[in-house]
Amino acid sequence: MTNSFPLGKLPPEILAALLSRSPVRDPRVIVGPRPGEDAAVLDIGSQYLIAKTDPITFVSDEIGWYVVHVNANDIAAMGGTPAWFLATLLLPKDLTTPELVDTIFEQIGSACTSLDISLVGGHSEITYGLNRPIVVGVMLGLVEKDGLITTAGAQVGDTLIVTKGVPVEATAIIARERGEALQDKFPAEFLTHCAGYLHTPGISVLGDAAIATSAGRVHAMHDPTEGGLATGLWELADASGHRLVVDPSAAILDDGRKLCEAAGLDPLGAIASGALLIAAHPDDAKEIMAALQAKGISAYAIGHIEAGSSSVVNVREGNQLLPRPPRDEIARLFE
């Protein structure tokens, strides 16, 4: 018997060890490959270029829409503006039809148009060993040099804010991918409403990031995706080197809680695109939250940052360490 990793991200300690084998030698690399950072940052002269790649593997419905938004989110989380997108489409042998390809391209085009992003290239192929489409995105964006925000920038004393609540993306996935199996537990109207989380409140955080950075001093932002808010908090702690003291339950959405409970999932460990984790100066936190709420974006203060080694403690559980998910909870749906 051989040991194998669970579905989802590589364990952070394994990833860190692998990345250490390839140290960055180019001084133009401002932010290189580091666990917890949302994207790479390159010095191209008067501005920084932000580069991000992310696949969509857990869903098939509206996969083209997802891939644009999740990649754009990571550009926005670093204070940048997404501008150029490339997509690699891996399509299953014997299951790929002209209608499927046309739908995915239409979704990518629509999402790019909605965010004023240009589709500039990519690759497509039909291959074996797949039972559903997989799309890998690459997003490029720009940020002014004095506007760059990194996960590592979180400071002692900062207030931790979560926008929209969690898990927005997992709520949509469960309703879309397992809706039929849950029809005996929930009304059809509820499942339709939850499936709509993809668009309302939506998985994009571009507006969240722009409002927050305009309203106050934001020291760090992070896009909690695979592994949910729990993993996002740990990644923020690891990147910044600080102790996070939180009550993450304050940001769990009631709809998401209900669906996760029915599916046997922990909502704190379920994929959470749509939320933005913000570390803000404590004197500006209320103003930032008010600005978000004025634009119809919910915002929750879930804790603060203290001096201490990298850790996340849950005040609701007697300051015990918040469990770090070994994989995203949503993976259970696909086993």
* Major β-sheet profile: 7 strands, mixed
How many beta-strand elements? Answer: 13
Order of secondary-structure elements: HEEEHEHEEEHHHEHEHEHEEE
Rounded radius of gyration (Å): 19 Å
Distance between the termini: 20 Å
| Whole-number total of structural domains | 2
Architecture of the largest domain, according to CATH?
A: Alpha-Beta Complex
- The helix content is 25-40%
Number of helices: 9
Spatial order of the strands forming the largest sheet: 8-10-7-11-9-12-13
Class per helix and strand makeup: alpha+beta
Overall shape: globular
Secondary-structure blueprint:
Blueprint: H1 12-19, E1 29-31, E2 40-43, E3 47-56, H2 63-76, E4 81-92, H3 98-114, E5 118-127, E6 134-144, E7 159-163, H4 168-178, H5 188-195, H6 206-215, E8 218-222, H7 228-240, E9 243-246, H8 254-263, E10 277-280, H9 285-294, E11 299-306, E12 311-314, E13 320-321
Parallel strand pairs: 4-5, 9-12
Antiparallel strand pairs: 1-2, 2-3, 3-6, 4-6, 7-10, 7-11, 8-10, 9-11, 12-13
Helix pairs in contact: 2-3, 4-5, 4-8, 6-9
Can you offer a commentary on this structure?
With 335 residues, the chain is α+β, with helices and mostly antiparallel strands. It folds into 2 domains: 12-147, 2-Layer Sandwich (60s Ribosomal Protein L30, Chain: A), CATH 3.30.1330; 151-334, PurM-like C-terminal domain (Phosphoribosyl-aminoimidazole Synthetase, Chain A, domain 2, Alpha-Beta Complex). Helix content is 30%, strand content 24%. The protein is built from 9 helices and 13 strands. The protein has helices spanning 12-19, 63-76, 98-114, 168-178, 188-195, 206-215, 228-240, 254-263, 285-294, and strands spanning 29-31, 40-43, 47-56, 81-92, 118-127, 134-144, 159-163, 218-222, 243-246, 277-280, 299-306, 311-314, 320-321. A 7-stranded mixed β-sheet has the order 8-10-7-11-9-12-13, sandwiched between helices. It has a 6-stranded mixed β-sheet with strand order 1-2-3-6-4-5, with helices on one face. β2 and β3 form a beta hairpin. The chain is globular. The protein starts with 11 loop residues before the first helix and ends in a 14-residue tail after the last strand.
